[in-house]
Structures are given as structure tokens and as C-alpha cells.
Amino acid sequence: MTIVMTICSTVCVLTTGAQTDRAYIRKGNRTMRAGAEGGAVDSEVSYRKALSVNSYNAQAMYNLGCALMAQQKDSAAMECFQKSVNAEKSKIRKAMAYHNMGVILQRQQQYGGAIEQYKQALRLRPNDNETRYNLVLCQRQNRNNQNNQNNNSGGDNNKDNKDKNKDKKDQNKNKNKDNQDKDKQNKKEQENKNQLSKDNAERLLNAAMQEEKQTQQRLKKAMSQPKRKNLQKNW
After folding, report:
1. Residue 209 CB partners (closer than 8 Å, separation 6+)
2. Considering 17, 92, 98, 196, which has the largest number of Cβ atoms within 10 A of its Cβ?
3. CA gap 205, 201 in Å, rounded
4. Is the dihedral angle over the CA atoms 39, 61, 65, 99 positive or is it negative?
């Protein structure tokens, strides 16, 4: 991702009596252009001195924002750029401030806010190719981010569905197991009933056979005894 941070080095024609803050701005600009180690820190000091002399100097506000941005002090830089937009009369410098606010938000992956800042910059400076490039890139990143969120959300839904299906499957499994256990219990009870019926039938049959045997024995015994003759009396 190509991100361009533009430093405003142009010295404006300021109102009478602003010579001192102009000198601080020039000093800060020289330090920033030199690119020496700690240059952004030294430039920050110079721009703050310029603002201490003239707190309404829009150029000092913007350049201070650039120095803070170079130090990754994004919140403070955003505040300076916003103040410079409110105080600045030049459309070009306003567009530069919007551009840099877009860069900060894009760097923080706040793509929606960055897109709005880039659009504001292009309204003021339609031919700024760097801003247009960043806008297109940011829009693409925003779409990818939304797609990833949707995919993650879909993955969570799929996981939930899998969990629900697993729970349902487990419930059905438990239900089937209960039914099988119930069937086994019923079968066992039926077998017990059948066994009792069989046992009763055998007992009744044995009792009947025993009684028949005893009857046969009595008959046999009776038939084996001699018959007595009937004697008639002669009267």
C-alpha cells in the first residue's frame, strides 16, 4: 500500500506582525526536509513555538500535524489537521489536511472514515492522483474487510449449525437407545410371562397326569379283588 504524507513547505504571505511565527515555520520546515534523526521531534518544537506566537496560523497547525504523524502520534496529528481545515482558507492546503487524515485512518484500518476524508480532499482538489489512488485502494481494502467479516460470521453460523445438528443427532441417538432399552425390557417381561405360563401349564399337566395315574391304580386294584357270591336264604 502506497501512502503519501505531504509536508506543506510553502511559506504563506502572512499578515503584518507575523514575522516571528513565519521564522519558526521556516526553521521547522528546514529540519523536516533535512531528514535527520529526530528531525520530526525538532520540527514539532518549532511549529509549536510558531503557534505560541500565533495560535490561528493554519500553516503551523498543518505542519505540526505532519511532524506528529511522522512520530506515529496519530490522535494528536488528527486534531491538528482538523484545526488546520477549520482555519485554512486555501482549498489546496485544506485538501492536503483531508488527505493526511485519510492516511491516518487507513493506517488504523478505519476504512469507512478514511474513504470520507479522501472524498473531501478530492472535492477540493479533483486532480490529486495520490489521493485518488489512496481512495481506490482504501475502498478495495474496505470490501475485503467486509467480506472477511461475512465469511467469519458465516463460519460461526456453520459451526452453530454443526453444533445444533450434533446435539440433535445425540438426542436422536439417546432417544433410539431409550427405545431399544424399552423394547428389551418389554421383550424380557414378555418372556417372563411366557415362561410363567409354560411353567403353570406344565404343573397343571403333571397334576392331571398324577391324578390319572392314581385313578388307574385304584381301578386296577379294584378289579384284582374276587367277587363275592350272593347267598339266598331259604325261608
Report:
1. none
2. 98
3. 6
4. negative
What's the CATH architecture for 19-144? Answer: Alpha Horseshoe (1.25)
Domain boundaries of the chain, sorted by first residue: 19-144
Q: What is the pTM of this model?
A: 0.59
**Element spanning 215, H or E:** helix 129-224
Is 220 a residue whose pLDDT tops 50? yes
Residue 49 cell numbers, joined: 513555538
Give residue-wise pLDDT tens across range 164-215: 777 777 777 777 777 777 777 777 777 666 665 666 667 766 776 777 777 6
Residue 106 is given by DSSP the state H
Burial of residue 3 (number of CB atoms within 10 Å: 0-12, 13-18, 19+): middle
Q: How far is CA 139 from CA 2, 109, 113, 114, in A?
A: 14, 11, 11, 9
Q: Which of 15, 19, 25 is nearest to 50 (CA)?
A: 25
Residue 136 C-alpha from the chain's centroid: 27
Task: Band the pLDDT of 149: cuts 50, 70, 90.
Answer: confident
Q: Cell 481545515 sits at which residue?
A: 85
Which of the listed ranges 93-97, 143-147, 175-179, 199-203 does the model predict with the highest average pLDDT? 93-97
CA distances from 63 to 13, 41, 101 (A): 16, 12, 13
